Amino acid sequence: LALILCIGSLCTESSTTFLYHDYCIIGAGPSGLQAAYFLQRAGRDYVVFERSHAPGSFFALYPRHRKLISINKQYTGKSNSEFNLRHDWNSLLSHDRRLLFRRYSRDFFPDADTMVRYLEDFASLLKLQVQYNTAIVHVMLEKNEQAWNGHYFLLTDQDKKSYKCSSLLVATGTWVPNVVNFPGSEYVEGYETVSINPEDFAGQTVLILGRGNSAFETAENILGVTNFIHMVSRSRVRLSWATHYVGDLRAINNGLLDTYQLKSLDGLLEGDLEDLAIIKDKKGKLHITLRFYLENRNISAGIDSITLPQDELDNFATRAPYDRVIRCLGWKFDFSIYNRSLRMMPGKGNIRKYPQIKPSYESRGTRGLFVLGTASHSVDFRKSAGGFIHGFRYTTRAVHRLLENRHHGVPWPSTVYPITQLTNSIVKRVNEASGLYQMFSVLADIILLREHPKTHTTATTGAKYPVGVLAELEMQTGRKAPNGLFIIIMEYGRNFSGADKDVFYYNRAVGEAQHAWQSNFLHPVIYYYKRLPTEREMRLRPPDWPLPRPDAIHHIVEDFLTDWTAPNAHILPLRRFLENCLGTDLRNFFAESCFLFAFTRQKLPPFCWQGYMRMQGLVGSEGLRHHAVQAGLLQDYTLTDSSGDRPPHSHNRAQDQLLRDQVISIRPLQHLVNAKDE
């Protein structure tokens, strides 16, 4: 019988037809569509499975009161598109300028319905391969040595159709409501179903469980019609302007804090929700008590037979009965569709609502399974913006680049440029790059140093590279780091962020370059390593440091305008730091200086090697020379010539003749002296 059953099972499996794709994406939300865009641009074989009839189904319902808290800044005073993305928290990355969110809404905090329309256009205009009305209900592994990762992913939808793929990208977000079970929790209404009509709460007393933006959003909607609102949560309120975490309470929703602190009946309480209990009286009022009061008692026996906290403590905070109790506790990842063979496990502690993943966004349990979007926020939870569109649009691109290198041999995009352009390139990136700015402390620009017979050249490798996998850089990017590297990253001050921090204290900002290391606000930090850090060094890095201790570190002083282009405060200290690390002079020189160095130094500055010694440089003119004299960069030879009857330019011609006689070839700007230190 066992043999017959086994053969029957094998026959059934062999008769199953699998539709194959190299890449399968589950979910057509923002991160799923962003991944699809990159795969399509690269010409890869992929499909996106979406359970709804349209993309972005989460935004069709949430937020319930339809006001997004992601900013949509129309004007920045600049036309640089990369810079403007620093203040556009809704647009996905694409080459199509029509798909900038500011073309869909002019509201600073847009309506959620606009986001739904935007995602629909993103999928249709870019012709992304999305298969709608397809709910993936089961995912399992099939071992196969010929597969990319040693196994295939087998997916089954609601209609029993089967799919097979080599790499699985999970972009389902977190959509399962968090529910706390306690005695009487059946009387609690969920955020996902509660009425959004304020009139339904007129004259009522309301208790809200939770303290995130959904809880305060709900309170804000009914603040003007209720008797009073109380809010209970395990943790204290965390304000986003104090923590610098956009997922904490935003100012647009914090009206209840005003009415609480100004004593207008509303209030906030702290307590463990699992210790609560709710009892309903004959009039339908809901009474709050504690679980231990109900031990060995029958809750259905009636409220008169149950001891309430106010019976022992007559000023118990929640002694007044409530008309409604609303649960606003956020969401968690749906683990139910994944077979045990995938080892998709929840995180620990405050990230247990997310699946366990590596800093590369790959599952810790299964190679080839990557988690994108909000569900990948465990990598930078409460540290950066990886759980939101303006953050995960960049981490999704990083995952795509990792996959391109792993499966298709496409190295991480890089730009090679002379060492003399190192300072300029860093200044440009810290002033424009949106990914570094939005994903501070998580994504970084990596500058690899490469030896040259005469000087250095540098390759910018890993623009917006995840620093959590820095030790794997050579394997993940296909780029080598034999001669050291610089890492450019954005950081807040170490002790500036926190729920209990006063971020408005006097003298909170630093303005002097010598105190740049004490900068509090977001500012660029450059780490220098003589060699690539190891995995062990990454594990043992200091607490709250994104990287191990470097051989040298430089903070560019914070700037009120986030404009790091001041010659003395920003650029000069940066250039000197780079020179100290490289042991070379990164200044630009005029031709005469290079000519002098050629006879007086054993090693020329890189600029002279890459310009003057290759017969390159500026062509001189009388106007340029006159301007240099006026600026104090040149000596005026006409004033130092003691021969009154000598023609004004005879000195120039005599020196030109001397140089020709000595068969020394230089460029026309021969009388320029050392450039001043800028």
UniProtKB/TrEMBL annotation:
Its cofactor is FAD. Coiled coil: none annotated. Gene3D superfamilies: FAD/NAD(P)-binding domain. Transmembrane segments: none annotated. InterPro entries: Auxin_biosynth/cation_transpt (IPR050982), FAD/NAD-bd_sf (IPR036188). The keyword NAD does not apply. Keywords: Endoplasmic reticulum, FAD, Flavoprotein, Glycoprotein, Oxidoreductase, Signal. GO terms for cellular component: endoplasmic reticulum lumen. GO terms for molecular function: flavin adenine dinucleotide binding; monooxygenase activity. The keyword Ribonucleoprotein does not apply. Interacts with SEL1L. May interact with OS9 and DNAJC10. Interacts with TXNDC16. Probable flavoprotein which may function in endoplasmic reticulum associated degradation (ERAD). May bind non-native proteins in the endoplasmic reticulum and target them to the ubiquitination machinery for subsequent degradation. Belongs to the FOXRED2 family. This is FAD-dependent oxidoreductase domain-containing protein 2. It comes from Acanthisitta chloris. The lineage of its organism: Eukaryota, Metazoa, Chordata, Craniata, Vertebrata.
